Amino acid sequence: MNHRHTSQSIIHNHRLGFTLIELLVVIVIIGLLMSLLLPAIQAARESARRLHCSNHLKQFSLALNQFETSMKDYPSGGWGHRWYLEPERGFGKNQPGGWLYHLLPFIEQTQLYQEVEDSEKQSGLTLLLTSKIPMYHCTTRRKTDFYPWEEENPLSRPINLTKIPTNLVKIDYAINGGDNDPGYSTSGIPLSLAIADDPSFIWDDFSKANGICYFRSEVRSSDVKSGLSNTYCVGEKWVRTKNYDMGDDTSPYAGFDKDNTRWTFLPPLRDNDSESWDQFGSAHPAGCHFAFCDGSVQMMTYRIDPDIHLHLGSRNSNEVVSIP
């Protein structure tokens, strides 16, 4: 009797266990399932990030259109990367700071805008450069945070910004400067407001620039002869993945610079380790988002025809463009 009970207990206990082979088979099956599911999970996450990024560009395009409706021009590009905001100088070509600051009231940042306006200039600029705004960043590339100021050339130090924060906000988007980058010379940038206000000062000639925002620009929607639905407004910018690049080394609030302006003479490029800081691009595997001047947003693949991309950057292109 006891012998039979003991035997049944042994058999019962044996049935509750797993052999090593069975355990290994289960682990292999789980591993295979994970390997199948992981790409799908990653694809779903990237799809969500793309939608997030597209919404940011939509907000920028709407803000630019609202600004143009209110002020009769798109924001001016400013006087180059060494110049920052002078609040009392308004919005047009006499404003040395870049385009981004002027949009704050139109992207639900009225409080920050007012605080900068009401503060002493240097403290206001410091506040501006160190205020995190989530819509400035593509979550595929990086999180909303502070990033190092990388400008080390003394000849490139800001003219009217005396307190430079070690870490500051940056941006993953750039306005459309056109299908060519005329650049600017050091002699064409004033070194003081007094020089800038001197009628005899010779500014760099940007008469051939054909984007919607560039050096001392004053562009209206009526100047977009190519059609609002056929002209880029703002897009994602290429950023170097190794260290930093010249298009992501200082503040997005500076005047006309590669940190906040890009061109279409080169096709969009996925982030890599090269040095291509003139062009649009992104961290997305499939392509780069652009907002058009009519407010629409579309992703362009990295394989877009370079001629089509070129013409989409020009507000006065004579070519008939078929958007892919």
Polypeptide structure, described:
The protein has 324 residues and is of the alpha/beta class. It has one domain. Helices cover 29% and strands 9% of the residues. It contains 6 helices and 9 strands; from the N terminus they run H-H-H-H-E-E-E-H-E-E-E-E-E-E-H. A 5-stranded mixed beta sheet has the order 5-3-4-8-9, with helices on one face. A two-stranded antiparallel sheet has the order 1-2. Helix 3 runs antiparallel to helix 4. The longest helix is centred in the N-terminal third of the chain and has 52 residues. The mean pLDDT is 86.
Number of strands: 9
Secondary-structure content class: alpha/beta
Major sheet size, sense and barrel closure: 5 strands, mixed
Radius of gyration: 27 Å
DSSP summary: helix tally? 6
As laid out across the biggest beta sheet, the strand order is: 5-3-4-8-9
Total domain units: 1
Low-confidence stretches: none
Q: Helix proportion of residues, in percent?
A: 25-40%
What is the 3D form?
A: globular
**How large a portion of the residues is in β-strands, by DSSP E?**
5-15%
- Our measurement of the CA-to-CA distance between the termini, rounded to an integer number of angstroms, reads 84 Å
Q: Quick check: average pLDDT? A: 86
Order of SSEs? HHHHEEEHEEEEEEH
